[in-house]
Automatic annotation (TrEMBL):
Region of interest (Disordered), ranges: 31-97
Keywords noted in UniProt: Hydrolase, Metalloprotease, Protease, Signal, Zinc
Positions of the Peptidase M14 domain: 104-451
Chain intervals with Basic and acidic residues compositional bias: 78-89
Designated name of the protein: Peptidase M28
Stored InterPro entries: Peptidase_M14
A GO CC term attached to the entry: extracellular space
Amino acid sequence: MGISRPSRPSRPVLLTASAAAGTLLFTVLTPGGASADPAPRAVVRDQSPLGDADRAARAPESAAARALDDAPVAARTGAERGYPRERRLASVPENPADKSIKLGLTPYHAIAPELNRIQGIGDRVSVEITGRSAGGHDLYLVTVTAPESAREAARQKRMRERIENEPAAAAADKTLKSAYKAPVFINNNIHGNEWEGTDAALKLIEKLARAKDARTRDLLAHHRLYVNVTMNPDGRVAGTRENANGFDLNRDFITGTQPETRAVRRIAIDKQPAVMIDLHGYVNGTLIEPTTPPHGENYEYDLFLKNTYANALGMEKAVNGLGYTEAKDGVLPAVIPFRDQQEGWDDWPPIFTPQYMPFHGAVAAHTIEFPMQVNNEEYDSEPVAELRRRSAVNTDIAGAAMTATLDYARKHRRSLIADQIEVFRRGAAGAPSVEISEETVPGVPGIGPEDVYTTKFPRAYVVPAAGRDQRSATAAARLVDHLLANDVRVRRATKDFRLGGKRYGKGSYLVDMRQPKRGIANVMLADGRDISDKVSTMYDISGWSLGRLWGATVRPVPKGSPAAVPSRAVAAAAGVGYVAPRGDLRLRLDDAREVAALNSLLREGVSVRRLKDGSVLVPGSARRAARAAARKYDVAFSATTARGGEKVRRTRVAAAVTPGELFALREMNFDVVPVSTAVLNDGFDWRRADVLFVSSGLDRADLKPAARERLDAFLAGGGGVVGRGAGGAALNSAAKLLSVTAVEGNGDANGVVRVRNAGGAVAGSGTGYGFVYAPMWFTGLGSGVRVEQAYAGGKPLVSGHWRADSSGAGGPADAAGEASVVSGVSAGGARVVLFGTEPLFRGHPKGVFAQVGRALFAVR
């Protein structure tokens, strides 16, 4: 037993600190801000263990429940109201422990009183609550604009809807071009310990409320400014990057697991910003997007780059014009990655706010990283006076970026509106993407072949009706609802039909790709691309396909006429919950919701037994409980005459895991107790758990002798183990459980992979796809070790970035055909399952969650 690590290349010296990613930026800055042969930035590993002090571990289950609630994040009103829409915000109890206070910044409890005060200044400022954070804090959205009657507000809404829904007509509408208030969105404090955007925004809002100059009057007469004051109040208060559930919200914009992310998604859809900026820290000099390659292939990138680069130049001028210098203040000149770097800061994955917003019409979108670090170790080690000096500099720079953006929007309002219309027109017309070049994007120097990324959109996607062609009706319904939540238009066939040379049944869902927001539809449903040969490393994930990872069958249709399919538009997926009227019942365990339903039955004391194929038998006498579960979780209980085997028992999980894994376990209704090395050393009572799930935060070598003895006694007494990744493999080796060698692939790798499932209790028939993030595989399998799943032969990577390291090892060719999930029984009798994939990654690959659920039941 052991872990084999292929040799790693040495890293270059890190010269510019960046807390924005919990890592460092590899670049050498010249005095002018341009980079001299920059090396790539390190891949981000943001999946920290829970730990005994982590808020996600201590967060009540209500935080997860709030995030898992699918209800709208804010009340929707029927009649359009005018502006201002003044709202008296409720006071928040004072919290002297708020981490903002030390920096001389605005604590969360002071924001509501400040907004109440500013609303009273004049008639330009309105405040609404768009939802609540995972930790229960209100989320404040401020609108700043010239007063509007209800009639005018309704007219603005009609023009906004026409831009999306009738873009060809909107392009010819002279009244719209002259009268429409182009929306600008400023998002702040998405990372809780990157504070200063909030304070700069409050200053800007008050300044605009009071200003009487002609430029401000012109701005507010022709624009609406939307300001998300703090997207992450949980983290702002606690001084953490993540929210109360331990999620990095700037990684959540495709999955949409967290209420804060869903609130911004609603803003994107309802407000339809033409320009947006997202305020972060800390990169010195101030980093201003657009980015280096690779560029997201589903954008109308020519329109995006044109505006984003031009606005970046204006922000750079404003920031540098403040007069801060390296010698005097420690502030380097601003950096525009597209111009100044070769790679390492990309816009490929749409998980970040500025990479998500373009799919809803933003034609200029930026991450701004102000320069002076005040978080993490600096927060604890620097004198208060120095921290406050740095925060004041950052606030000043954030304000300059905001003001420059508003100035750009004011000067280019008509072209911004025209470009937003063109984004939607291309989608609705099915127009091909425009390849960027210095001819198609004049004014942007340095465009080369390394910047060119386009895609060919299919004519449509079909999510087949339940039956032989659809693997999971529950998964299909969830996927359709998620598409709709992201403003993708979906229709449902009212009759059987033929499209693209294939037959589909009545009830199948159809996504016609000639729609305004085809980009986000393709982002979610396409396989994606293997970009391993395009750049040396990626900042974050590179593959995310919901079509492959969410459990539903999705079929691209290259050609045909979706308009000829008899169908109707849907606002929600049809429910699939069903309970057979007679006999015993079979519940498949192919989906997270089916696992959740099973756990709910076990909590009620229903006697459930295993079936040979990995599904479970529920006695007909429990039909009433099954009906309740079918309604709540939208799952089907079919009739069966099979005889059940071993009884399925309620499973309590001690989990040394990442926040995303904890969230996914709670989504499946497991009783979870977060643990870590420290928790075990403090005397954890193993009577509270039946199974140990280990991925990170638990090192057997660091356990005190008494804690190690208690763990070993738990394992010797029949306690099961599910391990994932290096953490799980290390425990397996240290505790001498399964006789295997765990091989770590290139730690920079991530993406969607093909797998072969062996059937049975753990992987079942599976989806045939999985997700990897620092992939692992198992060799040297001892007697009795079963391969539950293996990487596909040949080329297992479907989409993402996975290449061999500098020694030529650790790539997908090494993993091909090797075991990715194994199981067995240790010499001491402990049942064990080890995963080399990432089946619960950030709450994302929902189609493979059930493999972990099955594994936990299997080792019980």
